[in-house]
Design a protein that fits this description.
The protein is mostly helical. It has a domain of 38 residues. It contains two helices and two strands. Strands 1-2 form a two-stranded antiparallel sheet. It starts with a helix and ends with a strand.
Length: 70
């Protein structure tokens, strides 16, 4: 006799697999019909900030300075 926890995990894994298969099949149908992929956007956020010494430009005047890699 299987436990309820194992049956629940199997069900959740099956739902996840079915959703992934549905997305895969939809993308394959779109590619076969000549459609293009939707536009995607990637955002990154650094909530702590940056190291101030590596962010500031090097130089002493407004015309003679070197930008930092940041």
């Amino acid at each position: 006799m299987s436990s309820y926890r194992f049956a629940r995990r199997s069900f959740i894994a099956g739902i996840g697999g079915a959703f992934g298969l549905e997305v895969l099949l939809r993308n394959m149908e779109c590619a076969a019909a000549g459609g293009t992929s939707p536009a995607r956007m990637l955002l990154t956020h650094f909530p702590v900030g940056t190291y101030k010494q590596s962010y500031l430009p090097k130089g002493s005047s407004q015309t003679d300075f070197a930008l930092s890699p940041s």
